[in-house]
């Protein structure tokens, strides 16, 4: 089979690999949809020679087609429609057993698509305990989104304990930010969406944002306070990975408010003297637990949310070069490879 391998320097290759065979405790999926994640671009843009030579793609969704010896669980059966929680740890420590294998401190963590072959290929081998069921009412594309991007927004809101009483500013309206806008509205919150890209602001409005802001138009915190009667928002979710957005998020929340940082790639400093007496809570959030991934999928089904609307680009594997050139512009919605 052929799979997409990042080579660094904004290049990639459709390389040839043997079809996977499941080992002990493993299954093989026939991939139906493999999402493109913003974090892919960190590997895509790295200098040549600094990228692991593995198949990319950590938003897998497909059907089980082979089951190895000792692979147990309700989803380790041929024909099961599944997503993948794309991390694997020792699976015996408290973090792993509580559904957070990415937090494992006992064994090296495997991240599919980085440390082991991912989903940008016709087939993918994973541990059976990473499987999460895909409801028949969800498309494979929707399952791919929940497997990381949409699930990341869900996990952040779980950390925040978002409610319908909140007004939330979502900084960045890429796939994670748009997912956050959709999920927050479905939970009854008021949403202010921010992005420098006009098409993304337009989509945010279509997804239910109560107001949109272009950060290039002027001071962001002032614009948010004008929209909130001078109070600021109770929650700011930063998904863009821009240092300026981190600072704006801190300046936009009301006293006792919460800032949650999700976007990767930026560094910023803050003055404790400036924020100490605001009682602001600052959180980080890294994707979601296994249970959170399933809860996100259940919520999407229960509320009838149209996650397929996240996708503006659907690609074949042989279009990988064009797909990542388009995605690298960071305009528009989410991309996905369909097999």
From TrEMBL:
<keyword id="KW-0560">Oxidoreductase</keyword>
<dbReference type="InterPro" id="IPR002328">
    <property type="entry name" value="ADH_Zn_CS"/>
</dbReference>
<dbReference type="GO" id="GO:0016616">
    <property type="term" value="F:oxidoreductase activity, acting on the CH-OH group of donors, NAD or NADP as acceptor"/>
</dbReference>
<dbReference type="Pfam" id="PF00107">
    <property type="entry name" value="ADH_zinc_N"/>
</dbReference>
<dbReference type="GO" id="GO:0008270">
    <property type="term" value="F:zinc ion binding"/>
</dbReference>
<dbReference type="InterPro" id="IPR050129">
    <property type="entry name" value="Zn_alcohol_dh"/>
</dbReference>
<keyword id="KW-0862">Zinc</keyword>
<dbReference type="InterPro" id="IPR011032">
    <property type="entry name" value="GroES-like_sf"/>
</dbReference>
<keyword id="KW-0479">Metal-binding</keyword>
<dbReference type="InterPro" id="IPR020843">
    <property type="entry name" value="ER"/>
</dbReference>
<protein>
    <submittedName>
        <fullName>Zinc-containing alcohol dehydrogenase superfamily protein</fullName>
    </submittedName>
</protein>
<dbReference type="InterPro" id="IPR013154">
    <property type="entry name" value="ADH-like_N"/>
</dbReference>
<feature type="domain" description="Enoyl reductase (ER)">
    <location>
        <begin position="9"/>
        <end position="337"/>
    </location>
</feature>
<dbReference type="InterPro" id="IPR036291">
    <property type="entry name" value="NAD(P)-bd_dom_sf"/>
</dbReference>
<comment type="similarity">
    <text>Belongs to the zinc-containing alcohol dehydrogenase family.</text>
</comment>
<dbReference type="Pfam" id="PF08240">
    <property type="entry name" value="ADH_N"/>
</dbReference>
<dbReference type="InterPro" id="IPR013149">
    <property type="entry name" value="ADH-like_C"/>
</dbReference>
